Amino acid sequence: MDNTIIIPHDASSLQPDYLQCDAIHIPYTEEYHEYTRKRRSSSLLSLHLKECSISSSGSDDDDASSSCTSSKRIKKILDEREKRANHTASEQKRRNTIRAALDEISQIVPGLQDTNINKSTILFKAAEYIQYLNRRNYRLRERVAELHQKAGYSSRYPSISVPADQEI
């Protein structure tokens, strides 16, 4: 068995590639199993509470009302557990999204492919690579302007300035 749970979702065309997929793959864990079991029991409990409110409104029986009171207490506890499980699931989704973005960056930046390095190194190397591309782009634009000037064309790239914090 694959031990993966697939949750379909809608992906808008404005989302990055790593979010544009047919499903989110979440590894099957005992925690997720507990979460789904609790959701099922919570649904059964809400049915029980509806029955209690119907039966207690029709009679003054103390047993029915005490049963419903304890059920309401259990419902509150299950709600807290459900909130925690929802928080855990959304946090896991957030971490998976970040992991996918970092994987994509490591595939784009030269020297990071097929290596297992930490997140901060990936980000620092990506920043260095972007600075390199900016410098290269600047030099290429300068070269194009120079060639246009030699050929007698009017320059498409008027004076190009480099930010003070960037070196050429």
Automatic annotation (TrEMBL):
Pfam families with a match to the protein in the record: HLH
Record's keyword terms, sorted: DNA-binding, Nucleus, Transcription, Transcription regulation
Subcellular location: Nucleus
Domain BHLH intervals: 82-133
Chief location of this protein within or outside the cell: nucleus
Superkingdom of this protein's organism: Eukaryota
InterPro entries linked to this entry: bHLH_dom, HLH_DNA-bd_sf, Max-like/E-box_TFs
GO molecular function: DNA-binding transcription factor activity, RNA polymerase II-specific; protein dimerization activity; RNA polymerase II cis-regulatory region sequence-specific DNA binding
Keyword Ubl conjugation attributed: no
GO cellular component, one term: nucleus
UniProt protein name: BHLH domain-containing protein
